[in-house]
Specification:
It contains 2 helices and 8 strands; from the N terminus they run E-E-E-E-H-E-E-H-E-E. The chain starts with 5 loop residues before the first strand and ends in a 48-residue tail after the last strand. Pfam families: Phage_GPD. This is Type VI secretion system tip protein VgrG.
């Protein structure tokens, strides 16, 4: 059983040529590492020679989508509520998330989670006060880390990525955007409610 287990995936550059005898082989570090929980496993095909599998690796934070909750939080700020959910409901340790906030957040008298997943609830609270998050990898501890910020100084600036659809001929080892989509939908301009008593 591989589901719900911790896993990681490392991406390496093309290996260097073999090291001549008598010389020490260079230490090859991964270009990028992904850490998380195995949330999907599928056997794509198999034969006597080989088997092909598809594994879905998601950050632990994705576990917050599982299940709906009904809870009331009293006399806690938004960061305190989020920390409480991460620690008590999802067993996050202190090194697996951190808040780097520029502002102070007041305690709220009462906050209700009603028929929402923990992720939907957390995202709603964070959006309400202007806190955003991103998920990074800590290669030293081999874990994924959820970072919470409320300031533009923590944006990643100066990142330029080419748009290149994936193909075997253009695999040059550089990060790229594989696909862009534009979606248009019709929405209601207005809604009228009437009550008849």
């Amino acid at each position: 059983d591989v589901l719900n287990r911790w896993g990681y995936f490392n991406l390496y550059a093309v290996p260097p040529p073999p090291t001549p005898r008598g010389f020490t082989a260079p230490v090859i570090k991964p270009l990028r590492s992904f850490h998380g929980v195995i949330s999907g496993f599928k056997r794509l095909s198999g034969s006597n020679d080989e088997a092909r599998y598809e594994i879905t690796l998601q950050p632990r934070f994705a576990r917050l989508t599982r299940g709906k909750q009904f809870r009331i939080y009293q006399q806690q700020s938004v960061p305190e509520i989020v920390e409480h959910i991460l620690r008590t409901r999802h067993d996050f340790r202190g090194e697996e998330f951190y808040f780097n906030l520029a502002r102070q957040y007041p305690r709220r008298e009462q906050v209700m989670q009603y028929d929402e997943s923990d992720l939907a609830f957390v995202e709603r609270l964070l959006a309400d006060v202007g806190i955003w998050y991103r998920i990074t990898s800590d290669d030293r501890l081999n874990i994924d880390v959820v970072e919470f910020h409320d300031d533009q100084r923590h944006y990643q600036r100066g990142v330029t990525l080419p748009c290149r659809p994936p193909s075997g001929l253009s695999a040059d080892g550089q990060d790229a955007v594989w696909n862009l989509q534009t979606v248009h939908r019709m929405v209601e301009q207005s809604i009228n409610f009437r009550a008849y008593h």
